[in-house]
Amino acid sequence: EKCKQAKDRRGETAMAICVGSVHQSVHKHDAALQSFADALEVARSIGDKELEATTLALCVKSHLHREFPEEAQRDAAAYLALKRELKDLAGEAKALLLVA
Fold first, then answer.
1. pTM of the model
2. Tell me: the pLDDT tens digits for 7-56?
């Protein structure tokens, strides 16, 4: 909330990722995905492709835990595209492993 008040969009995104990660760690994947959706919206609005990619990777994990392979594959493909755009070879490899 303080990040929103301070108009710190990156901080707002980071906080949503943290909240989602906590939900993910206690197997509350629906709540995690909601937080990640909030993070994605802000990351995209500010054009932060690294934060967007990080969030997509976390979404893939929650989709897989929920046994939604189509959604996992969709987000992994978006993650891969971002990592290719950023010329991040390690990120490309991670994307291929996410749904392997």
1. 0.87
2. 788 988 999 999 999 999 999 999 999 999 999 999 999 999 999 999 99
Cβ proximity of 99 and 73 under 8 Å: yes
Contacts 24+ apart (CB under 8 A), 47-53: 48/10, 48/13, 49/82, 49/85, 49/86, 50/86, 51/10, 51/13, 51/14, 51/17, 52/82, 53/79, 53/82, 53/83, 53/86, 53/91
71 alpha-carbon distance from chain centroid: 13
User: CA 1 to CA 73: how far, in whole Å?
Assistant: 32
